[in-house]
Design a protein that fits this description.
The complex is a heterodimer of chains A (622) and B (252). Chain A has 622 residues and is an alpha+beta fold. Chain A is built from nine helices and 32 strands. In chain B, a hairpin with a 5-residue loop joins strand 6 and strand 7. Classes of the chains: A alpha+beta (622), B alpha+beta (252).
Chain lengths: 622, 252
């Protein structure tokens, strides 16, 4: 070790000589340029264990001379001061900086203040700040030790590094791209592992659960992380993204984004006294370390109520809509597919189904949804297609009305309403309804809507009757019912009596007729004796007519020769007798109205008449 | 002639109407109470008319409505049935009775009558007993007159026609009388009952210890077959029979 120190000292002296040779030149060159000079001091670590090497760098953004560094009495000086200068020309302006670095290692534990260093710039002496170094105990909490490269057993206590000191060398950092979001607005959370040590193995012990969020992994931790360098506060880290997720807050308020916990096995080289170990790359030690990120908080604000459009479907992001139909000409009662495509970036998955405001001519069914979404570093984007099946029920030129779709744009902080175009559809008459549709194609009848059921209202008019009073039951009813019967009986009795009386009259007349005829014939006989022509025939005529009138019950007024003959024929009289009757009646009429008096035939006419009457008497009796 | 009979009947009615003026006023008053949703008071008013010995299907209907509105379903059904008895084809009565029957617990399937009987019964119900009676008298009168004409008729053709008509009118008169008497018996007799208790067990015999056959609930309508002491033998529309206490129901 003393050898090393000597070697370094010689080497440094040579460098200093070189530096002093060039210094006047540089000073001369930049004499006029005046900068805000500052001598800054930095250490790559301020917390360390006994024997752990660290680096202190003093840097000056201009050139200076007479650098005086403090004596590092409590530290072993491994190397330094190592000077480096740099020159930059940016847009014609030249800048120069110089830095001095030391590699030290503390001898004992404790807190040390490294007193400021000084340098003279343009004849002015400037000082750096003091630096505090905490030296802890040598790391002894190694849970796991691994030995590699040969059979090295001995451990140098001084070389052990504690996890505490690992803090700055290995940690997880969670980051979000926004600190304040709206409900439904997407944000990206990234978990990164920063390391300055080599990690042999790692495993997730606690994956974050995003309560109150809907999450979608951009990539998950089990994927092989790629390392890339990143500098934080002048310290370079190897950084690996281990998890990236898109979060969509589902409620408002202050929400926690969970921490991520992880176990890492880190490999650290250890100094070995073993020659072979050194030869083969030195020994190393693996130790297991748990690391955890901080819990982040995010403020989620609700969507503004002001200006919220009707039918807002909960879409947050940036969208565009497109509508189309699969056919524009069809028959009534056939189906047409109405496709509504929403595309853009945002919470597409959370958009409620959009209600179509269709005219009554259409029947519609619930839409089929088809999502095409992709998750990228910037969020979820893609499209959702609603496939509505519409059935026009009537023929004609119909319009699928324009559709309004509203979403909230978190960037512009306002609601935006998109309007689709109207789509005309030509509907021809369907097969079955030609007859009905042609008459009243524009009238669509609706069923009467039943609002509720209730009993029918009371009646306002009535006609009150005595309870139990019946016409049917009354005496009046039976009286009235019997009355016609009584009438009928009375009628029958009357009729019978009348008929009886009537038949008596006829009988009398018939009986009288013979007597009357006899009387008249006697009178006629007396006239015959006296030879009185006119009275004789007069009496004979009366005797015959009177007799027949009474016998046949025919009124004398209606009596005529033909009627008498017809009546007698019906009663079955002899044809010869009828002929004689006709002759004698004719003779009588002739004698009554003629002036010629034939006295000779009187006797035979008288006998004839008696004969006829007796004949008729016999006929009618039988 | 028919007119004459109606005039006669109307004259009979007129005397009744004259005595009825105060009841008509009471009816209007009750209707107003109903209109203003004072159903309990309307019930009292309607019942006053009934107690004075007068009735009409409208009165029973309005009273039933008032009972329905004051949630007395059994009473509502009873009075709807009474209204239906007087006006069997009144649509309002039928509809309201149906609605009221929806509110009761028992859903008893109607036992279907033979179609021909149903037609005949419906036909008989198309006219009230009194109207059938008038028709009977009229037809009998015509029939008797036709006999007279028949007797006086001289030609055989006329006699044949008159004889046929006589027989026809006599049949009309006879059947009208029969229908009138049937409707009259239905009106007079009260062989239908409505249950007024929330729940009643129907027994197999007219005593308390008898086996319970089934249960019926408030508002159920049934036919009363016979009475035996405090018990009545009832028959549901689905032909189930049994004995219940006579105090549990009210006759229509």
């Amino acid at each position: 070790m003393i050898k090393d120190t000597l070697y370094y000292k010689v080497k440094m002296r040579q460098r200093l000589v070189l530096l002093f040779l060039f210094l006047p030149f540089t000073l001369l060159l930049f004499f006029n340029s005046v900068f805000a000079q500052e001598l800054t001091v930095s250490a790559n670590k301020t917390k360390l264990a006994v024997g752990e090497q660290f680096q202190i760098t003093y840097s000056l953004n201009t050139s200076g001379n007479g650098f005086r560094h403090p004596s590092f009495n409590d530290f072993d000086l491994y190397s330094g001061p190592n000077q480096s200068t740099s020159m930059q020309i940016i847009n014609g302006a030249m800048s120069q900086s110089v830095s001095y670095s030391f590699i030290l290692a503390p001898r004992k534990e404790g807190t040390y203040t490294i007193i400021p260093a000084s340098i003279t710039v343009n004849g002015k002496k400037i000082e750096s700040k003091a630096l505090t170094i905490n030296v802890g105990k040598g790391g002894s909490n190694n849970a796991q030790q691994q030995q590699n490269s040969g059979n090295q057993q001995k451990q140098s206590q001084q070389q052990k590094a504690g996890t505490e000191e690992l803090g700055n060398n290995l940690f997880i950092k969670a980051s979000i791209d926004k600190s304040k979001v709206y409900v439904g607005e997407q944000l990206v959370v990234t978990y990164k592992v920063y390391t300055r040590v080599s990690i042999v193995d790692n495993g997730l012990t606690k994956a974050p659960v995003f309560n109150g969020f809907w999450s979608e992994d951009v990539f998950s931790p089990n994927k092989q992380a790629t390392l890339h360098p990143e500098v934080i506060d002048g310290i370079q880290y190897q950084v690996a993204e281990i998890k990236k997720a898109i979060l969509i807050p589902q409620r408002s308020g202050t929400l926690d984004i969970d921490a991520m916990e992880m176990d890492c096995v880190i490999r650290m080289s250890v100094k070995s006294n073993n020659f072979f170990d050194q030869f083969f790359g030195g020994g190393y030690r693996d130790s297991k370390v748990s690391i955890k990120s901080r819990t982040l908080q995010i403020e989620v604000v609700p969507l503004p109520e002001e200006g919220k459009p009707d039918g807002f479907s909960g879409a947050v992001g940036e969208f565009s809509i497109e509508t189309k139909v699969n056919k524009s000409k069809l028959k009534a009662n056939d189906g047409v597919n109405y496709l509504l495509t929403l595309s853009g970036k945002g919470n597409i998955k959370f958009i409620e189904s959009i209600k179509l405001d269709l005219p009554k001519e259409f029947e519609s069914f619930d839409p089929k949804m088809n999502d095409k979404l992709s998750v990228s570093n910037t969020g979820i984007s893609g499209s959702r297609t609603y496939d509505y099946l519409l059935i026009p029920r009537v023929a004609g030129n119909l319009q699928i009305p324009a559709l309004n779709f509203s979403y909230f744009d978190p960037q512009k902080k306002e609601y935006i309403t998109l309007k689709s175009a109207e789509i005309p559809i030509e509907v021809e008459q369907g097969e079955g309804e030609k007859a009905t549709a042609s008459n009243n194609s524009n009238i669509i009848k609706e069923d009467v809507k039943m609002l509720g059921s209730d009993i029918r209202y009371i009646k306002s008019k009535t006609e009150l009757n005595r309870i139990g009073l019946f016409f049917f039951d009354s005496y009046l009813f039976y009286l009235l019912l019997i009355l016609p019967f009584i009438g009928l009986v009375v009628f029958l009795l009357l009729k019978k009596k009348l008929e009886k009386e009537n038949s008596d009259v006829v009988l009398m007349r018939s009986k009288k007729a013979t007597k009357l005829a006899q009387k008249r014939l006697q009178m006629a006989n007396s006239y015959l004796v006296k030879n009185l022509y006119d009275p004789f025939y007069e009496e004979l005529y009366k005797a015959l007519y009177g007799y027949l009138s009474d016998k046949l019950n025919i009124n004398g007024m209606d009596l005529s020769k033909d009627l008498i003959v017809d009546n007698l024929r019906k009663n079955g009289a002899n044809e010869n007798t009828l002929k004689q009757l006709h002759e004698i009646l004719s003779t009588c009429e002739f004698a009554r109205y003629s002036s010629v008096k034939e006295v000779l035939g009187m006797k035979s006419d008288y006998d004839k008449s008696i004969h006829i009457i007796s004949e008729i008497e016999e006929t009618l009796r039988s | 002639m028919k007119k004459m009979f109606y005039i006669f009947i109307l004259l009979c009615r007129f005397t009744i109407l004259y005595a009825n003026e105060s009841n008509e006023a009471e009816f209007g008053k009750a209707n107003n109470l109903y209109k203003e949703n004072h159903f309990e008071k309307a019930i009292v008013s309607y019942k006053a008319i009934l107690n004075s010995g007068y009735e009409s299907s409208e009165l029973y209907f309005n009273l039933a409505n008032a009972y329905y509105k004051s949630d007395s379903i059994a009473a509502a059904i009873l009075y709807y049935e009474k209204a239906k008895k007087l006006a069997p084809f009144d649509e309002d009565v039928i509809v309201n009775l149906k609605i009221a029957n929806l509110k009761i617990k028992d859903k008893i399937e109607q036992h279907d009558e033979f179609v021909l009987f149903r037609w005949v019964n419906t036909f008989i119900l198309t006219k009230s007993a009194d109207k059938w009676a008038v028709q009977s008298i009229f037809s009998f009168f015509v029939s008797c007159s036709l006999i007279v004409l028949y007797m006086l008729a001289k030609t055989i053709g006329r006699k044949k026609l008159l004889f046929t008509l006589t027989i026809l009118f006599f049949l009309i008169a006879f059947s009208s009388f029969f229908f009138a008497s049937k409707n009259y018996t239905t009106q007079q007799s009260s062989n239908t009952g409505v249950l007024f208790l929330e729940l009643v067990q129907v027994n197999s015999a007219p005593n308390e210890k008898a086996t319970s056959l089934f249960e019926i609930h408030l508002g159920t309508t049934f036919t009363v077959l016979e009475r035996n002491g405090n018990y009545s033998r009832i028959k549901l529309q689905n032909t189930n029979e049994g004995w219940i206490k006579s105090s549990a129901y009210r006759s229509i």
